[in-house]
Amino acid sequence: MVQKTVMAGSPVLIAVSAPTATALRLAREAGLTVAAFARGDGFDLYSRPERIHPEDPHVA
Length: 60
Hints:
By secondary structure, the protein is of the alpha+beta class. It has one domain. Helix content is about 30%, strand content about 25%. The chain has 2 helices and 3 strands. A 3-stranded mixed sheet has the order 1-2-3.
């Protein structure tokens, strides 16, 4: 998923499941923000957290 996200030009990948160590390494190398365990009440950030601003009204 990381490779596809980077190739599509998206700066952020949001997933409902856990990222692998390899996926996180590739994401960091590519500068991709990874959010995982996304549910209705939030998510966990794994790389490039500075891209996500909780006070932004567009962030659920």
